[in-house]
Write a structure and sequence with these properties.
heterodimer, A: alpha+beta, B: mainly alpha
Chain lengths: ~525, ~300
């Protein structure tokens, strides 16, 4: 008996002994200036020219910096490596004056040539970068990438001297400065890349701790796969004085419930997202840590125009008009999402599309009748394709119900594994497919460009020459007002033809410790870490 | 016993070869490719990517290239994580998964054998019913429920243990090991009870008692050796299952083990990673099954004497 008791006692002493001090990582982080960051998933890598994705962006924004940086208060970009710039009257020539204090994390001074070489790298076809089109706005860039020209000197980027960079664009691109805060346009350290491989080597080990050299406010300290990436303050950063954090720890927590528990137990300052079922509860509880920020992303359904039944625009409109978007966000998504009546989220850099997308079941029924469908000739069964996910299922169920009730259409829900869903979308093997799009930069072009003919992400089969013409015209004018008017015109053409059905505008819902300061809402979710600091609330 | 060992090792080679071949062609049949992404890449970029990873070659050519690499011990580069080789990723995740499996099996053995033997000795008393009821709960409650439950109690309500991590915070290995250990403890408890009951009724136990040995000696020296053979037979597949099936616990507790790489590789169509981890886990299953068979043989006096 005594023995049993002592075993039990030892077990509990062990547990108590292992529980450590009262200091949670969040508390000790406050003392040491360490920001514990829930980062969604393990990043593919940290080569800014090779990787894609949000977790990768969060790490890269701490390690590297482009010519400009996103403005934490919204609005035009702020100086990054370029301390100032001039733009020619026709909007096609940019001269960037680089900050002479801008250095790489190994202490070397940055030069204009670094940008020329870096942009040459991302435009090198054999690198297989997934974002070369971010630089297609440059003269000759697309031609170089697709092999039509082989001399990089013909591309519109030149180093005038060590600290002056000239960029020539094909047409005025008012959002060009905004593009420069996207990681694909950021510089990489030539000598380091070449030391570990060639210019087009995707697999070089230059991104490993100890090898990695870049120019951001932090430098890579350790990287434990699937566990944690630690970055520490870079003393060579040109604006090191502004940087208040000493370290950032990125945790690849792919399970949202685990992330939520980690936050509640004081192991994280910030979560990447929220379990969707908890959002309405936290809203009701007035959870002080809950943050719901505007986000430049749209949730929509793609309609396959090549499907014989969806070819008729009246059918497509009927489908769109029979969806109650307000109900969808209030009863189904329930996390502050905004009903969408346009493809571009309103408010993107002062752009407010004027398209209308009524919820009008009567009109929808009438359109179906005009399209030749009636009780005696019912519309055939429709299929909604989505990737396996409980939230997508809930939305699809609601839409299924609305179409059944308002139009009498039988709808089948088809969920597929992510890659199967993508491949079916890509080859056009769907009728209606759920989709989402997040803006790469703060301009309506990042959405509207998608629907132009021959764009890989159009996927609907819809090709409209008038739309393409208006888009082309919009992107060749230097007058922002005129441009927005043309983009709105394009938006109207899109909604009139309805190859997509916008459903709602995303929000970014997450939890943030009240001790984190300077983490302001940003429509692109760009948070330059030099503005973030920790202070007891 | 040595002959059995070598015979089984030789048999393992065609098994692993078949596993590699079947897996290779199965993943080729699966729709979707490693470079399919929400933001579709241009055909030009896709062509370059396929070329970089030898995916433009015919399936047979790729198969021959992969198998010849495999013979040299090269599992290829990961498609999902540029710059990382599959061997490197297995080497990173394996020690963690092994450590987790070790603690779990230790907990399972201590708890399972103790309660199983106790239940057998005190048959049809509350010392039998209670541990066996708990064992039944342990079998029925899946780890994805047990894990969060333990986290809620010890991590969030009592605040005595960290809710996630592995080797980052003091005590963060306790909850995942307990979660994984519980499920197996339950099986082991039932197996040891059954095995012990069978042995305790046999003549040699009666003889031992008649010779005047203490009850402890009877149980520990005579009964347990035979009574625990089912447990030892179970251990081989159990360890292999722990290694390959720790994905759920690794995800719940944010543990950087091999299980997460394995499952995520399938979702990402990371062909080489799927192949590498499948072959590796198959080898582990073959190895631990063999070990458990050998241990069972050795524990059984009749077969031990025969060999």
């Amino acid at each position: 008996m005594l023995k049993k008791l002592s075993i039990t006692l030892i077990f509990f002493i062990l547990i108590a002994g292992c529980s450590g001090s009262d200091n949670s990582p969040v508390d000790s982080g406050l003392e040491k200036g360490i920001f514990h960051f829930g980062n969604g998933s393990e990043p593919q890598g940290i080569d800014p020219h090779v990787v894609t994705g949000v977790p990768e962006h969060h790490i890269l924004i701490s390690l590297c910096e482009g010519l400009t940086i996103a403005n934490p208060d919204g609005g035009p970009n702020l100086p990054g490596v370029a301390e100032s710039w001039t733009i020619s009257n026709d909007g096609k020539e940019y001269i960037f004056y680089l900050n002479k204090n801008a250095k790489w994390s190994n202490g070397e001074v940055m030069t204009a040539d670094d940008f020329v070489w870096s942009w040459m790298r991302i435009l090198t076809a054999s690198l297989g970068s997934q974002y070369p089109d971010m630089l297609y706005y440059l003269e000759g860039a697309e031609e170089y990438h697709t092999g039509k020209i082989t001399d990089f000197n013909e591309v519109g980027i030149k180093a005038i001297d060590d600290h002056t960079l000239k960029v020539n664009l094909k047409s005025p691109t008012p959002f060009f400065l905004g593009l420069l805060s996207h990681y694909s346009t950021w510089p990489v350290h030539k000598e380091t890349v070449l030391k570990h491989g060639s210019i087009d080597d995707r697999t070089g080990e230059w991104t490993r701790p100890g090898n990695f050299v870049c120019n951001g406010p932090f430098q890579l300290k350790t990287w434990e796969l699937n566990n944690k990436i630690v970055v520490e303050k870079n003393p060579h950063y040109w604006d090191a004085e502004t940087v208040k954090l000493n370290e950032m720890h990125f945790y690849p927590v792919s399970n949202v419930m685990t992330e939520d528990r980690m936050f509640r137990a004081g192991q994280l300052h910030l979560t990447s997202t929220l379990p969707s079922q908890k959002c309405p509860i936290y809203i009701e509880e007035n959870n002080p840590d809950l943050r719901i920020d505007p986000y430049m992303g749209q949730y929509f359904y793609r309609l396959n125009i090549n499907n014989p039944y969806l070819k008729d625009v009246k059918v497509r409109k009927a489908l769109a008009y029979s969806i109650n978007r307000k109900l969808l966000v209030e009863r189904v998504t329930r996390c502050g999402q905004i009903p969408a009546y346009s493809f571009t989220p309103p408010g993107s850099n002062g752009y407010y599309p004027d398209t209308e997308l009524p919820f009008n079941p009567e009109l929808a029924k009438q359109l179906m009748a005009e399209a030749g469908y009636s009780e005696s000739n019912p519309f055939p069964k429709l299929e909604i394709l989505f990737n396996t996910n409980e939230d997508h299922r809930k939305i699809a169920l609601a839409i299924q119900q609305m179409w059944q009730e308002n139009l009498g259409i039988q709808v089948e829900l088809v969920n597929q594994d992510w890659k199967v869903y993508l491949s079916r979308e890509m080859v056009g093997d769907f009728q209606v497919s759920r989709a989402g799009w997040i803006g790469d930069y703060e301009d309506p072009n990042t959405f509207l460009d998608l629907m132009r003919p021959n764009r890989g992400n159009n996927k609907t089969g819809w090709e409209d020459l008038e739309y393409d013409f208006v888009m082309q015209k919009a992107n060749s004018t230097n007058n922002q007002e005129e441009r927005y008017e043309l983009l709105m015109e394009a938006e109207r053409i899109l909604i009139k033809n309805m190859p997509i059905i916008p459903l709602y505008t995303y929000v970014r819902a997450y939890q943030l410790s009240p001790d984190v300061k300077g983490y302001k809402p940003h429509i692109l979710d760009h948070h330059h870490p030099k503005f973030i600091y920790l202070e007891r609330d | 016993m040595l002959a059995i060992f070598f015979k089984r090792i030789l048999l393992a080679i065609p098994v692993l070869f078949a596993v590699a071949t079947i897996t290779f062609f199965l993943i080729k049949i699966a729709p979707g490719g490693p470079f399919d992404a929400d933001r579709a890449v241009s055909p030009q970029v896709l062509k370059n990517l396929n070329e970089a990873y030898n995916l433009n070659a015919s399936n047979w050519q790729q198969y021959v290239d992969y198998m010849s690499g495999l013979l040299r011990g090269d599992l290829g580069p990961s498609f999902r994580f540029p710059g990382r080789s599959v061997s490197e990723m297995i080497a990173t995740g394996l020690p963690v998964t092994f450590e987790l499996a070790f603690y779990a099996i230790l907990i399972a053995l201590v708890m399972g054998v103790f309660s199983g033997v106790l239940a057998a000795l005190k048959r049809n008393t509350f010392l039998d019913f209670i541990p066996m009821s708990i064992a039944m709960i342990g079998i029925c409650v899946p780890t994805f429920l047990m894990g969060p439950l333990l986290v809620l109690i010890f991590g969030i309500n009592l605040e005595v243990l960290p809710v996630s991590g592995w080797g980052q915070l003091p005590g963060d290995k306790i909850l995942p090991s307990l979660t994984l250990g519980f499920a197996y403890a339950a099986y082991i408890a039932r197996l040891s009870r059954g095995g012990m009951l069978e042995v305790l009724n046999q003549d040699f136990i009666r003889t031992a008692r008649a010779k005047g040995l203490t009850e402890r000696m009877v149980v520990v020296k005579h009964a347990m050796q035979g009574g625990l053979i089912p447990v030892v037979s179970f251990l081989g597949p159990a360890i292999a299952g722990l290694l390959a099936g720790s994905f759920v616990v690794e995800t719940i507790f944010q543990i950087p083990g091999l299980g997460r790489f394995y499952v995520e590789a399938a979702f990402n169509r990371d062909y080489t990673m799927i192949l590498g981890t499948t072959i590796f886990f198959s080898a582990m299953i073959v190895f631990f099954n063999l070990m458990s068979d050998l241990a069972s043989l050795w524990l059984n006096p009749r077969s031990r004497d025969a060999s």
